[in-house]
């Protein structure tokens, strides 16, 4: 069952099994607000089991580009296209959010972004590979993020 994320009333619906559910809900709401304000897009997520193709696509990119396998359980995922960009998000039980920005124009930008919910540790599979910058969010507290550029075709 899909869930349209409300960024005015943050709710941990679908994320309850996470030890940082409220912070992860804030991070998810932060993304929803961004897409609503920039593209007038309603950010809707599905349980990961119902969006397995999205989870598989993100995991394939992580594996083939950087040999990364996320150890945490995926809780929710979404994929959509805005302004010629294919976006995909996977939200994990640990509090991690992985997003893929894949411009459909071959000359465009393509990258994978990682965001860590407030209160979670950097996952072991990412700790030695990335430095995480901090940003403040009214909805999510402190978000730590990093990214890498995608080189392959997906």
Helix content: 10-25%
For the biggest β-sheet, the strand order reads 1-2-3-4-5-6-8-7
Shape: globular
Report the mean per-residue pLDDT as an integer: 94
Number of β-strand runs: 8
What is the string of helix and strand elements?
A: EHEHEEEEHEE
- How much of the sequence lies in strands comes to 25-35%
What is the terminal-to-terminal distance?
A: 27 Å
Gyration radius, in Å: 14 Å
Instruction: Please summarize the sheet with the most strands.
Output: 8 strands, antiparallel
Low-pLDDT residue intervals, each spanning 5 or more residues: none
Account of the protein in words:
The chain has 154 residues and is of the alpha+beta class. Helix content is 25%, strand content 34%. The protein is built from three helices and eight strands, in the order E-H-E-H-E-E-E-E-H-E-E. Strands 1-2-3-4-5-6-8-7 form an eight-stranded antiparallel β-sheet. It is globular and about 40 Å long. The protein starts with a strand and ends in a 5-residue tail after the last strand. The mean pLDDT is 94.
Blueprint (SSEs and pairs):
Blueprint: E1 3-4, H1 21-39, E2 44-47, H2 52-66, E3 74-82, E4 85-92, E5 96-103, E6 110-116, H3 124-127, E7 133-137, E8 141-149
In short:
With 154 residues, this protein is α+β, with helices and mostly antiparallel strands.
What key attributes describe this structure?
alpha+beta, 154 residues
């Amino acid at each position: 069952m899909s869930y349209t994320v409300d960024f005015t009333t943050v709710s941990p619906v679908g994320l309850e099994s996470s030890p940082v559910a409220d912070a992860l809900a804030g991070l998810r709401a932060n993304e929803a607000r961004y897409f609503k304000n920039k593209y007038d897009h309603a950010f809707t997520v599905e349980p990961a089991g119902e969006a397995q193709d999205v989870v598989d696509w993100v995991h394939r990119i992580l594996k083939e580009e950087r040999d990364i396998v996320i150890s945490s359980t995926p809780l929710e995922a979404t994929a959509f296209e805005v302004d010629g960009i294919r976006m995909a998000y996977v939200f994990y039980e640990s509090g991690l959010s992985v997003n893929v920005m894949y411009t459909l124009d071959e000359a465009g930008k393509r990258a994978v972004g990682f965001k860590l919910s407030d209160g979670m540790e950097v996952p072991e599979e990412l700790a030695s590979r990335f430095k995480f910058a901090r940003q403040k969010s009214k909805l999510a507290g402190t978000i730590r993020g990093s990214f890498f550029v995608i080189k392959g075709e997906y």
